Structure prediction request, 204 residues.
Amino acid sequence: MDVLEVLAEPARRRIVDALLTREASVSDLVSALGMSQPAISKHLRVLREAGVVTARAQAQQRIYRLEPGPFRELDAWLSPYRKLWNLHLDALEEHLRQGEEP
Amino acid sequence: MDVLEVLAEPARRRIVDALLTREASVSDLVSALGMSQPAISKHLRVLREAGVVTARAQAQQRIYRLEPGPFRELDAWLSPYRKLWNLHLDALEEHLRQGEEP
DNA sequence: CGGTTATATACCTGTCAAGGCATGTTACGG
DNA sequence: CCGTAACATGCCTTGACAGGTATATAACCG
Prediction:
């Protein structure tokens, strides 16, 4: 899953977090995150190519917004692992104690 | 969130995926993933320090098992973003109901 | 004990990506 | 047009990290 690698980067998670409440221009994010503008733009490019964000032009500004798709993908990837915290508490320990898995 | 960075690595995701169905020893994973044993051990170390897996000793073997905690964390981190695909559907619905095209 | 199996660690190397600076690009404003 | 504002891109350096080989450690077997 590519989304995981994209969101692994801390700066990118801060951007995504900032975009959660409202969409923002590049300079908004620059002043919000205290990073250089090229750095922000590069991260936005990565996020854009992964489909995490989309941009629309408004005057000379580019307004970036979150897209739900990749987060749904991540949710879907996580899905099989949810059985872990159902299984874990009661069943697994007894299961191991009886040892019935060849 | 540290878990994201740990699970961003493809080889580590393959390990985690292999451990989803059943626990496994190091050599099991070596033959399953076709990587060198030291490489597997290093990934397991990273996963262990992140709390994604735990190991128990059985003879000379170390049996590795998934732990639910980090996956719950990931699920919790993802939670605020779930509103995205609710908002998306709401906006779409209203947009369809108004049926406007400039 | 000595040898063997199973895993961990040390060390080295190549790769890749993040971040800074400088510069290109594009759309407005006068 | 020309200058400027808002972003994007190119180039460069540096640091982290993955993977391999060689070696240490630990438990088991004879």
